[in-house]
Design a protein that fits this description.
Number of domains: 1
Strand content: over 45%
Radius of gyration: 18 Å
Number of helices: 1
Strand order of the largest sheet: 1-2-3-4-5-6-7-8
Mean pLDDT: 85
CATH architecture: Beta Barrel
Order of helices and strands: HEEEEEEEE
CATH class: Mainly Beta
Distance between the termini: 44 Å
């Protein structure tokens, strides 16, 4: 698959996500929620005082083939919730070291991610996000830029603790030598929402 075809595919997926995501000016409660008869009060949606969140994650990108440990800061914007108290538009920054699977030099990485979190359950704090990820991996003598699109599942426990799983995101990678290729990545982690 050529770099142009991959870029067009990634652009098409991004356009689909933007088209079918709720508008940022949507009011809370505009999209209906469903019930799952959850009895555990620790797993019910609970409001937090701010939109700030900090945490850590393990990320597993393929091309470049690395394991990344990252510190994350995430902010969800108040007033963008269209479906329940946990939904809304969010931005995220992450930074940390990356280790090649086969050993060797340690890479550095930085990420800037955007997404929209959906809160489909009235009585279960399980959310789903559409996400656009922009990752920079720094190594000697250059860098890789990776752009991926995909989904993210998050479970809130006791209102503040968040455990998340990103099954897989797909996209493209461009290296500092001008080469381009297909890329995908997965992640697992936790955070604390204030």
């Amino acid at each position: 698959m050529s770099a142009l075809t991959r870029s067009l595919l990634a652009g098409s997926i991004a356009a689909w996500v933007v088209t079918f995501s709720p508008p940022l000016h949507a009011r809370q409660g505009q999209i209906k929620q469903t019930s799952v008869n959850n009895k555990a009060s620790a797993l019910r949606p609970q409001p937090t005082k701010t939109g700030h969140e900090i945490g850590a994650e393990f990320r597993f990108p393929v091309n470049p083939d690395l394991v990344s440990l990252r510190f994350r800061y995430r902010y969800i914007f108040a007033g963008t919730a269209a479906q329940g108290p946990l939904s809304g538009f969010w931005i995220e920054g992450a930074i940390g070291p990356s280790f090649p699977y086969g050993g060797g030099d340690v890479f550095g990485n930085f990420a800037f991610n955007l997404g929209y979190e959906f809160d489909p359950f009235r009585d279960l704090a399980l959310t789903f996000s559409a996400v656009v990820q922009n990752d920079l991996y720094f190594f000697t003598p250059g860098f890789n830029y990776t752009n991926t699109l995909g989904g993210l599942m998050r479970l809130y426990v006791a209102g503040h603790w968040v455990f998340f799983f990103e099954p897989v995101t797909f996209g493209f990678v461009v290296d500092s030598n001008g080469g381009a290729d297909f890329a995908f990545q997965a992640a697992i982690g936790f955070s604390y929402k204030f």
